[in-house]
């Protein structure tokens, strides 16, 4: 089940999935247009969806140059951010300049998920954020905490 609400301060959609675990609450917040956006083709969208489906919890916390390449696109970690989080993007291969079709920030307070069920939930929400970004051309922020 998913619950979406509008944040009146940001004018951005916020999504949470009902997980019923007070120690693992995750929100996905739209933070605005994707920088260096390129309109994807249907093949790019399919390839991006396939790449996103391969992302697992342990990979979320890797450092560059880690990437998952699927045909016309690559899903890669752009870098670490303050607090231990990561910046992930899906980009179209073979294009110079604007090539980003999905972009998210994953906050470091999700790396501490302490059970397999919580790690699976973090993985699912990170994948959801990447797909939301792909479908809306908006950057997403995935935030916890998840202990």
Describe what this molecule looks like in 3D.
The chain has 147 residues and is an alpha+beta fold. The chain has one domain (14-143). Helices cover 25% and strands 36% of the residues. It has three helices and eight strands. The protein has helices at residues 42-53, 57-60, 116-136; strands at 2-7, 12-17, 27-33, 67-70, 73-81, 85-92, 100-106, 138-143. It has an eight-stranded mixed β-sheet. Helix 1 packs antiparallel against helix 3. The longest helix has 21 residues, at 116-136. The relative contact order is 0.23.
Number of helices: 3
User: What's the Cα radius of gyration?
Assistant: 15 Å
Give the overall shape.
globular
The main pleated sheet reads as: 8 strands, mixed
Number of strands: 8
Overall structural domain count: 1
Category from helices, strands and their pairing: alpha+beta
The unreliable regions are: 1-14
Mean pLDDT: 90
Strand fraction band? 35-45%
Strand/helix succession: EEEHHEEEEHE
What separation lies between the terminal Cα atoms? 21 Å
* Order of strands in the sheet with most strands: 1-2-3-8-7-6-5-4
Report the helical percentage: 25-40%
Q: What's the SSE blueprint?
A:
Blueprint: E1 2-7, E2 12-17, E3 27-33, H1 42-53, H2 57-60, E4 67-70, E5 73-81, E6 85-92, E7 100-106, H3 116-136, E8 138-143
Parallel strand pairs: 7-8
Antiparallel strand pairs: 1-2, 2-3, 3-8, 4-5, 5-6, 6-7
Helix pairs in contact: 1-3
Descriptors:
147 residues, alpha+beta, 8-stranded mixed beta sheet, 3 helices, 25% helix
